[in-house]
UniProtKB/TrEMBL annotation:
Stored InterPro entries: Isochorismatase-like_dom, Isochorismatase-like_hydrls, Isochorismatase-like_sf
Descriptive protein name: Cysteine hydrolase
A GO MF term: hydrolase activity
One Pfam family recorded for the sequence: Isochorismatase
Source organism (scientific name): Saccharopolyspora taberi
Keyword tags: Hydrolase
Isochorismatase-like domain ranges (all copies): 8-193
Length: 197
């Protein structure tokens, strides 16, 4: 496996208050498993190391602007967040990217979307292509939701995708491992942070 850092980007998915902190919208479901897994510190170290190598980082946020943007209420998940959309406004406290995940606002890009895939309903894929990016490394929460959906989407767009397996987690450990097993088959393979670095 050879990765050219000049053609690579890290997509850091949903490292936001609503997803990983107890006070966030999904806190009751995800905050404790995230804390127990230790994933935030590992992701922060990976994000920092990638940045030092000159690899751009894009932190995606699930947000809902006034008028709902490209939100489609076609699943239970999307109906639930639509009903609580004030908590997901771009300037709402819950939408903030958490600094403990290694976010550097002066260096990193933020991309908002209203779909489960971090690439859906935005121009992010086009912006990556314009920069010559053909490989993406994914970190984030939850493995079986936004990470898996984004990984499959990116693969279908022709990108080479590696999920950073120890920089992602889910509410349920079994779901996390099942998702990684699926992604091993549907992407270029899951790798640990140390393997990729």
């Amino acid at each position: 496996m050879s990765i050219d850092p000049r053609r690579t980007a890290v997509l850091a998915l949903h490292w936001q208050v609503n997803v990983i902190r107890p006070e966030g919208f999904f806190g009751a479901m995800l905050a404790e498993p995230v804390r127990r897994s230790g994933v935030v510190a590992r992701a922060a170290a990976f994000h920092s190391a990638a940045r030092e190598l000159g690899i751009p980082l894009v932190f995606t946020r699930f947000t809902i602007p006034e008028g709902e943007g490209s939100l489609v209420r076609n699943t239970g998940f999307m109906r639930a967040v639509a009903e609580a959309q004030e908590a997901f406004r771009p300037d709402a406290p819950g939408s903030a990217v958490v600094p403990e995940a290694g976010f550097a606002p002066e260096a990193d890009e933020v991309a908002d979307n209203q779909r489960l895939s971090g690439l859906a309903g935005t121009d992010l894929a086009d912006r990556l292509a314009a920069r010559g990016v053909d490989t993406v490394l994914l970190t984030g929460v939850a493995t079986n939701l936004t990470v898996e959906q984004t990984a499959r989407h990116a693969t279908d767009l022709g990108l080479t995708v590696h999920v950073v397996s120890d920089c992602a987690t889910a509410a349920d450990e079994a779901a996390h491992h099942a998702s990684l097993a699926n992604l091993e088959l549907t992407t270029a393979g899951c790798r640990t942070a140390s393997e990729l670095l």
